Amino acid sequence: MLEIKQLVKKYHTGDLAVNGVDLKVEKGQVMALIGPSGAGKSTLIRCVNRLEKATSGEIWLNGENIVKMRSGKLRRARRNMGMIFQEYALVERLTVMENVLSGRLGYVGFWRSFLRKFPQSDINAAFGLLEKVGLDTMVNKRADELSGGQRQRVGIARALIQKPDILLVDEPTASLDPKTSRQIMRLITELCEENKLAAIINIHDVALAQMYAERIVGLREGSIVYDGPPDDLKPDVLTEIYGKEDWTAVRKRKPKIKKSIEEDSTTEEHLEEMQ
Amino acid sequence: MTDIPTNPPDTEVSGQQTSTFTANWSPPPFIKNPLLRWALLLGLILYLFLSIGSLDVNWQRIYVGLDRGAKFVNGFMNPNFAGRWTDISEGMIESLIMTVTSTAIGIAISIPIGFGAARNLAPLPVYLFCRGIIALSRSFQEIIVAILFVAIFGFGPLAGVLTLSFATIGFLSKLLAEDIESIDKSQAEAVQATGSAWWQWLNYGIQPQVMPRLIGLSLYRLDINFRESAVVGLVGAGGIGATLNTAFDRYEYDTAAAILILIIGIVMLSEYISGYIRAGVQ
Amino acid sequence: MAETLSSATKVWQYRSRNKQLLSWFIWLIGTALFMYCWQRVSESTTWFFVWDAPRIAADIGSRMMPPRWSYINELWGPLWDTLNIATIGTMMAIVMAVPIAFLAARNTSPSTRFIRPLALLIIVSSRSINSLIWSLLLVSIIGPGVVAGIVAISLRSIGFIAKLLYEAIEEIDKNQVEAVTASGANSLQILIYGIVPQILPAFAGISVFRWDINIRESTVLGLVGAGGIGLQLNASLNVLAWPQVTLILILILLAVIFSEWISAKVRHAII
Questions:
Q1: What secondary structure letter does DSSP report for A3?
Q2: Is the pTM value of this prediction over 0.90?
Q3: Interchain contact B189–A (C-beta under 8 A)
Q4: B187 CB near a chain A CB, below 8 Å?
Q5: Which residues of A fall within a CB distance of 8 Å from C10?
């Protein structure tokens, strides 16, 4: 579904952020992208929806090359890619509802969006998603009144209301505490499974990556050095990606998601939190 | 490295004994380079000497003038609103009308120019053009522009309105452009990533971030334009300025004081109101 | 806000009905006000002149070119005067504005009931009256000349400097002041060690900023007789000597560029 061919991104300063990456993501596949800071993970995802312009290479989404697209087609392509940002990137002064609805901007004309007269189907979808992420009581709160975890959930709802084919997730848990991080990762992977969404999740926490993703890609200095299941992430592989370190603290992957919810002792709290 | 005072050789640095340092300390000077410091200081003293020396103070005249000054203070204590009320009220209303009109027109023109002068929004030629307009607007004092506009458009409040609108552009567009250039990029990026069109991006990604400041600046400009509208009348561009000038010419200090008190009062009122509005918009 | 649960669908409105009505109402009033004001302005305008304006503008434009460069010899003196009016005026204003600012700031004012409102009143009065009007007043009282200009500039600048300064004083970091207080310092020492260092950069920036503005304002005070290059401007306009006017405007422009450059450099160095 998404195919990246020989992607190269070189900055004006000469920094080579992405160095000839080849990657294929199948429909419905949740993939984690790990690697040290500066490895090119963020740049790679941002090249996919052209927030950064790639220097060379091809990115094929559903049979069309994103790198060469003109603005009209690019907008339509972007509708199909939901992005979730590291620092949530909500429009702070707008309400939760407006932020979620802004995900439909690619589908709605200017005047409707200006007057905030979105079609009822969009509004229904918004309410549904907000309920799903547990924020249906905060519909008209301003975004800057929310906590970090709440904001990230709004960001997730915004990405999903686009009804995308793929989620591009840039360090979703970087600014969150350990418990909230797990809730967010669980939410993302559950939603992906429900909606058969593919996802590229840029994450620096290797343990979380192993727990929630079915495929891990390790990036180092702009090139892929590992591509395989989480279980094969042995210490020597990690050394290759990150450099020498004591890797014994990294947890092994838990079996399939469904089971882990039943086994997870924090489920009760998880349900309460979502109130 | 040589500045660190070293231990005198016969002292031990241990838990029991404390070492004794003898060294002088004075706070570091404000300007580090001693040459520059002295040059500036000498330059300042020289300048003061020359400038005050060149002042041609007619102490005699000032002494006589103090008498008039007392008359003015007297006039301030008993301001005369009634005497020339029609002139005063007409002038004040005209000033207020000019303020409203020029601020409205000014805001309307400043917004597109402000957007065009923001480097992160506008292509280079548009950017340079808008910055050029802003520079032109800011270069000249309102009164000079008023004189020019009166010569071109004739006496009356229209010249004043045009003057103040033009001045508003320089102020509002510049500050708006600076605000736009310092927005949080990620908020705008997120809106862009959903596949929105340019106008939608402006409306959802940029506008919410700059709106509060824009409203605050517009209210501030309203205040400034009112104060300026009292001045452009001096050269025939409408407003209370003409009445004020006449009062001074005739040494009618009580009338002049009345006008000044009215101006101060309206400015105070507008400060109050704009404080409320700004708090509400936050 | 506006969410109603009707059998199956949830409805969402951007603004509640009341807010929407209020919003429309405000726009209506605003537009009506503007239309009224515009009509009044229009009534007082001789539109015949306005339609003639491009022709007149072109006429004046042609008369203004080329500038009478020889006139510049008569302008050096007034230019020097203008510089002095601005500089000495700003200095005097600083001396008076600093105490007023401390009296007006909530955290340093000795009495918030009596002295603070009084200080605020002085500030508002000072800034409500344009320096040109102050000049009118002073020329009427102590006669034309540079002194009237200096006093006018300083009277206007007190309000500007004191306002920005007291806002800076109110925004200082209380922790730093607390620390100095905790060491047992008296009020004056707290002022000097705790407060002054925090506002010094702002103070320098404000002073230079006002000096820059004052240079612009000083150039026109002469129009009412308060000295400086404005006197020449007034004289030239009275005899319709447009080439001289052009030269004066060029000089004013250069003075403004010069003062902005200095002001930007100093404020940059402070930050």
A1: E
A2: no
A3: yes
A4: yes
A5: 123-124, 127
